[in-house]
Amino acid sequence: MALLDLGKIKITNKGLWSNVTNYEVDDFVQSGKHTFICIANNLNEEPYNVSTSTLNSSFWSFMAQGADSGDWNAASNSPKHILNKPQFLPSMEVVKFPDPGNGHRHYRAFHVLMDNGEIRCWGTGDAYQLGDGQGNGNRYRPVSVGIPKKVTRFCTQRHGGVAITEDNECWVWGQNGQGQHGLNHTTDSYFPRAVPLPTGMTKFISAQGPSGSSPNSGSTYIYLCENAQGQRFVYTAGYSGHGQIGDGAVVTRHTLTQVTTLNNIDVEEVYSEGTNYGILGVKCVNGDIYMWGHNSFGAIGNGTTSHQNTPLKCQTTSLPDLPVKKLSFQSDQGSYGYSYALLENGQLWFTGQNQNGVDGSGSATGSNVQRNSWVLVGGEGSSNVVDFVHSGEGRYVTLMILKTDEKVYTIGYNDYGSLGIGLTGARNSWQIPPASRTYPHGNVPCNINVKKIFAGKSGDSHSNFLFIRDDGEWDSHGHGKAFAMGHNSTGALGTGHESATSPGGANTSWDARFPDECLLPPRVVEMYCAGTDAERASMALLSDGTLWTSGYGFHNGRETDNEAINTFGRLTL
């Protein structure tokens, strides 16, 4: 149970808003059917304009929505979708980060799931990706995503998000220029909307949208539904310029369209990645995988560079007919797409753009080097792989794997030291970060007893990686010590300095080109890093449910404006 710091609770209920009351920061008021919290001292600044449904965002922040059809942001035909009471969570615990997804452009917005089923968010809202109902603008501290039901799983994208509730409803928010939300329109959603179930379906199991640069010019969402008999069906909505809808046509759809090729194959997970040039995929209970969509760089592995407008079972091509444990791929703006599939037997397979030798073959790098069919990753990737993560778009991809010996191995692009070997420059052969390092305060083990690995969701050339190693309490408590390496210009690695090349500050001897110890308690269970090269931040979840953040300004949620913080600090939710 997280400890509650009573000194941090400042909110004051001022009742109904009045134009003669002086309001101070953290006062909250009711106005009409809505609740607002003061973010700047003011007098006679009405929280919102009824006639224009406009929030007075210079002085007030939206906390909860009303239920009347004429209310600000209310859905006239769906009053049950509107939250009509404030929720304050100073003592709640974080239980989950977003589902990993396939995207590498989780751009400067951060979301976490609380133990009461609520999603909290902060960061930038320039593309409605926060889902708090306030539209564009930055949130310097956590606010609520307006889903009036308990969420069990969710994923976020560059321009929005999607969540599944405990009663198996699906809620979406963000940009919707291609009708990818499946709501039969192309209007963007500042706050979450419930997706209608297709005829004959009784529940949503999961859903995912792509993380790309241009969702309003090309974005496809994928949904997994189930009927009363327990049979599962896959649906898509949105852009289909390269067959992403999966029904054989290249026609954009604004409502959910069933992908009939995938009927009766017991799908358990669905994936969507990339805008304009997106790829979609599914993984079945038996480990079969299917992929379709954009294929100019061979990322689907069908032996050609022709696009795939219906799902293709990858085990019928060059991928062995063996169960897949994990599938991950990248494709955005035509930028050198690629895919990895980890088999249950510990082999890692690759197809697509191979500019920095990330197929492990040791082949020469170059802008036109690619694989159009699945190949077994060479060297360390050929056996005993437990997990893998990759960071950066296709021209700048870096790959990290975790093996059964509980060590991490790296290969690929390395301009910012993300390989963890103390040097820069791409490597097309496998590298092993050091097992330990000696510093003025003593020897520090790092690349031994590694249990979990994570990649920064950057979508550019500024890659970084994080991992958790067992510090003696993994088996008893499931937590460990965190390390990071790679790009760190805004202190997102939380190692006490802010530069990939010039360490300083709290730990003057650390260098992000090696695995650096994150300044965190040794009780870390999950990590997450996202943002651009100049505006990046990280989150760490501890076993006591507390959340710690480091990095750029308002992306760390600690009300620091644009000031970077290079050490982790506990975030008050």
Q: Report the C-alpha radius of gyration, rounded.
A: 23 Å
Strand order of the largest sheet: 1-3-4-8
The biggest sheet, with number of strands, parallel, antiparallel or mixed sense and barrel status, is: 4 strands, mixed
Portion of residues within helices: under 10%
Structural class: mainly beta
| Average pLDDT level | 83
* Low confidence ranges: 1-9, 66-91, 500-511
Number of strands: 42
Look up the CATH topology of the largest domain. Methylamine Dehydrogenase, Chain H
Task: Tell me, briefly, the overall form.
Answer: globular
Amount of beta strand: 35-45%
**Which CATH C-level class of the largest domain is it?**
Mainly Beta
Number of helical segments with 4 or more residues: 1
Whole-number total of structural domains: 3
The termini sit apart by: 14 Å
Structure description:
Residues 1-9, 66-91 and 500-511 have low confidence and may be disordered. By secondary structure, the protein is mainly β. It has three domains: 1-91, no CATH class; 147-383, Regulator of chromosome condensation 1/beta-lactamase-inhibitor protein II (Methylamine Dehydrogenase, Chain H); 395-573, Methylamine Dehydrogenase, Chain H (7 Propeller), CATH 2.130.10.30. The longest helix is centred in the last third of the chain and has 4 residues, at 474-477. A hairpin with a 6-residue loop joins strand 29 (385-391) and strand 30 (398-403). The radius of gyration is 23 Å and the shape is globular. The strands form twelve sheets. Strands 1-3-4-8 form a four-stranded mixed beta sheet, with no helix packed on it. The chain has a four-stranded antiparallel beta sheet with strand order 9-10-11-12, with no helix packed on it.
